[in-house]
Amino acid sequence: MASFDIDGDLVRKLADLLRETGLSEIEFAEGEKRIRVTRPTAAQTVAVQAAPVLAAAPVAAVVAPAAKPASHPGAVTSPMVGTAYLAAEPGGTPFVRPGDVVKAGQTVMIIEAMKVMNPIKAPRAGTIAEVLVSDAQPVEFGEVLLIIE
Known about the structure:
Layout: H1 8-21, E1 25-30, E2 33-38, E3 48-52, E4 75-77, E5 82-85, E6 101-102, E7 107-113, E8 116-121, E9 126-131, E10 137-139, E11 144-148
Antiparallel strand pairs: 1-2, 2-3, 4-11, 5-7, 5-10, 6-9, 7-8, 9-11
């Protein structure tokens, strides 16, 4: 594993950004270098990881044991940390509601991350059984957003 100098100022800026946004972790990558900073949660400590990126491999996440919604085959999970919005604009009509029929690829909500609005699309066709997040709610990577039956 190749080593690289850790930019202390960058780590401090990332930690400040975590505090300002209320996020639990943030990752910065530049070329072959990657720095991840996480905030402590109950009974955890702050971890700063630095490792070279090997090709374009996906980042593995540690997820708590499966709860009932997460084990559902129609669970739609968050692909990122951010803020979930159920409508295109404040006070607007939600993209989907329980009971709505959706098509594969249809936008079901938006997650804002780093001031970028990311549409979350239905991975398959079906009926919205349950929406598990509220409008403007912070969400974590892997958190179940809704269930499609």
